[in-house]
Each structure stands twice: as C-alpha cells, then as structure tokens.
Design brief:
By secondary structure, the protein is of the alpha+beta class. It has a domain of 58 residues. It is built from 3 helices and 2 strands. Strands 1-2 form a two-stranded antiparallel ribbon. The radius of gyration is 19 Å and the shape is extended. The mean pLDDT is 81.
C-alpha cells in the first residue's frame, strides 16, 4: 500500500499556489459513509476516531482526462466511482476465518 499524504514539499507547493490545504491528504481521497451505507457494509458499531480499518474496494473508472496547459505542462486525471466495498477490523464484521472460508471454501 502507498501512503498518499502530502509531503512537506507538496504542502508548500499547494499553499504557494493559493490552494487551501485543510488536510494532509489530497482533495477527493476521503470517503463519507452515511448510516444506510454503514448498514449495507455491516458496520453495526462505529469505530473510534483515529482507529485504522482495512478496506477492500472495487471501483469503476468513470472519467479520464488529459490536457495541455499554456506553459507546456501536461495534466492528467482519473475519476473513480466506488461500487463495492468491504471494511474489516470492526465489530459486526466477519472474522478473518469466516472471510477466508467465503473466499476459498472451508
């Protein structure tokens, strides 16, 4: 896994370009899960703030873009829509043995 937090240099670059940096992570990398979504993925008890969870997601590429800027710089981006997810490490989730059995059989 790759940690996508801004480096100190990237933070300085973002602030230098007059962009507001409210997080140490890039815009668009946060997920918000409402009560209905939490219920769908089986999270019955909320995790503690600051705890880490393992997540497996399936995404669909919904948009790709590349453009040439006036200064010659090429900018590229990809937009992804999360379509399926599983979060482990919380109460209400199957334990690792149950998950392995689901994937690989008993």
């Amino acid at each position: 896994m790759v940690n996508i937090a801004y480096t100190p240099e990237e933070t300085a670059d973002e602030q230098g370009e007059a962009k507001i940096v409210n997080s140490k992570y890039p815009y668009g990398t946060s997920l918000y899960l409402d009560e209905d979504t939490l219920a769908k993925i089986g999270i019955a008890k909320l995790p503690e703030v600051g705890s880490q969870l393992r997540m497996q997601i399936l995404v669909t590429v919904t948009s790709v873009s590349q453009r040439q800027e006036a200064d010659g710089e090429t900018c590229q981006n990809v937009e992804l829509q999360v379509t399926d997810m599983e979060v482990t490490g919380t109460e209400g989730q199957a334990n690792s043995t149950e998950q392995a059995n689901k994937l690989y059989g008993s």
